[in-house]
Write a structure and sequence with these properties.
The chain is α+β, with helices and mostly antiparallel strands. It folds into two domains: 53 residues, no CATH class; 81 residues, Glutaredoxin, CATH 3.40.30. Helices cover 47% and strands 13% of the residues. The protein is built from seven helices and four strands. Strands 2-1-3-4 form a four-stranded mixed beta sheet, sandwiched between helices. The longest helix has 16 residues.
């Protein structure tokens, strides 16, 4: 069923479109981005006439129309430096950004495993700010991270 109305609960297609776009960036799966964009295109007639009935789908449109941005934070879950970097990222409203955490767990799962490919910085937790999958120099300093994010 192609329900288009986002009521108190967002329509499943709207949620799926945004999730596919985000997951495509997290997992480097361009085919998922294609499916997410096709889902948006399927609802284009409604979006062009009454975008206000599909706010979650409009969020997917907005996400799809901006360059990819990622922040990857690597470090142990119990490390205060990692938590300070995380707080710095979460202090900003960035709905278009994908934020990944790599906690150096034994079995991190597929998304964290991809993020874990980025190394610590001199043995310390580090943050990587990336745009279009090109990352700036990593940092362990929350103030430097704030400058990169701003």
């Amino acid at each position: 069923m192609k329900e288009q109305y986002d009521g108190a609960e967002p329509a499943g297609n709207s949620v799926a479109a945004l999730n596919l776009l985000r997951l495509a960036q997290m997992m480097d799966r361009p085919e998922w981005e294609t499916i997410g964009r096709r889902t948006i295109e399927a609802f284009a007639p409604w979006l062009s006439k009454q975008p206000s009935i599909m706010p979650r789908m409009m969020a997917a449109v907005d996400f799809a129309s901006t360059p990819p941005h990622q922040v990857v934070i690597v470090g142990r879950l119990d490390d205060e430096k990692r938590n300070a970097l995380k707080r710095e990222v979460l202090a900003r409203y960035r709905p278009h950004w994908v934020i990944l955490y790599a906690g150096l767990a034994r079995d991190p799962g597929p998304i964290a495993a991809r993020a874990s490919a980025l190394p610590l910085l001199d043995g310390q937790s580090a943050a990587y700010v990336c745009e279009n999958f090109a990352c700036r120099m990593p940092t362990s300093d929350p103030d430097e991270l704030a400058r990169q994010l701003d």
